[in-house]
C-alpha cells in the first residue's frame, strides 16, 4: 500500500468527524499542514518584527529581506498602484512557499500538491483581479481583449483567443503549481522505492539521484511559489494599468 | 525543459492511470472529492487568519522598522556630512592662522633686522665722524709741531754752541752771529738732505 507513489497524497481525517449541515469539514492531514504552515509564518515573522534594532538579528533580517523582496517584485511587475495589494501577495507567496517547503520534509503532507487547494487560490485571484479591473476601468476593462494595432480582419479571432487565454488563467495558474509539486514528490517517491527494491548492491545510483532530486525539489518549491506570486502580480498589473 | 517533459509525462501517465483504474484504487487522491469541501474550508480559515494577522499586526511593524532604519541612516549621514564640513572649516581656519603667524613672524624678523642695521649704521657714522675729527686735530698738532721745531732747534743749537764756545774759549761771543752761523748750517743740512 505504502509503496504506491500516489499514497503520499491521500487525505485522511484526523480526529472526529465534523459536519456542517450535511457537509463534511473534518480536520484532515491537509488541514493540519495548512495550520502548521500558517503558524510557522506567523511565528517567524512575528519574532522578526518584534525587535526593532538598527542592526537586525537573523530573524529580523530574514523578515525584512522577505518584505523588501516581495515589495520589489510587486513594484517591478505591477508598479506603484499595486501597493494596497502588497499584504495579500505577501501572504500568498509566504503561504505557498511554506506549504511547498513543509512538503519537502519526509512523511509530511504537501498542501499545494492538491488541485483543489491551488484552484481555490487561483480562482480567488482570478475573480479578485477581474473585479478590480472592472472597478478601476468600468466596461473599459473589456479593451483588454482587443489589442491595439491588429488588422480588422484578424480582430474577431484575436478577441476569441484573448478571452480564452484570460479565462484559462486560473486553470493554468493552479495546474502549474499542483502538477509541479505532485510530479516532484512522486518522482522522489519512485526513486526512493528503487533504492529499497535494488537493495545495498544497486541502490546507490537511485539514492544519489534522490539526493540530487531533493535539492532540485527545494529549488522548485521556491520557484513555484515565486512564479505563483509573480503571475498574480502580472494579472494585477493587467487590471490596474490597462495597456492594450 | 527536461523537467517540463518529465512533468508532462508523469501528468499524462497519472491521468491515464486514473481513468483506467478509477474504479479500483481511486487513482489520484487529488481527484477524490471526498475532502474537497473540508480542504476549501480549512484553506479559507487558515489563509484568512494568516492574511489578517500579517496585514494588521506583522507587516506594519516590519514596514515601520524599515522606515525608521532608513530615516535614521539618512539622519546619520546628514550629521556625518555636517561634521565633515565643520572639520574642514576648522582645518581651513587653522591653516589660515598658521599662515598668518608665519607672515607675522617674518615681518617681525625683517623689522628687527632693519632696526639693528639702522642702529649699526648710525653708530658707525657717528664713530667715523669722531674719528675723523680726532685724526684732523692730531694732524694739525703734528704739522704745527713740525713747523715750530725748526726754529726751536736752531735756537737750542745757537744756545748750546754759545755755551760750548764759552767753555772752550772762555769768552762771550755775540749771540746773533752764532745764530746766523747755525742758521746757515741748518740750511746747508737741509739742502744736503734735499739733495
Walkthrough of the structure:
The complex is a heterodimer of chains A (244) and B (195). Chain A has 244 residues and is mainly alpha-helical. Chain A has one domain (7-240). Chain A has helices at 29-50, 58-78, 86-103, 115-137, 155-167, 169-202, 204-240; strands spanning 19-20, 23-24. Chain A has a two-stranded antiparallel sheet with strand order 1-2. In chain A, strand 1 (19-20) and strand 2 (23-24) form a beta hairpin. In chain A, helix 1 crosses helix 2 and helix 6 (169-202) runs antiparallel to helix 7. The mean pLDDT of chain A is 90. In chain B, helix 2 (36-169) crosses helix 3 (175-194). In chain B, 9% of the residues are buried. Chain B has 3 helices and no strands. Chains A and B meet through strand 2, helix 1, helix 2, helix 3 and helix 4 of A and helix 1 and helix 2 of B.
Based on CA atoms alone, the radius of gyration of chain B comes out at: 69 Å
| Content-based structural category of chain A | mainly alpha
**What oligomerization state is this entry in?**
heterodimer
Beta-strand residue fraction of chain A = under 5%
How are helices and strands ordered from N to C of chain B? HHH
Shape of chain B: rod-shaped
Features:
heterodimer, A: 244 residues, mainly alpha, 2 strands, B: mainly alpha, 2 domains, rod-shaped
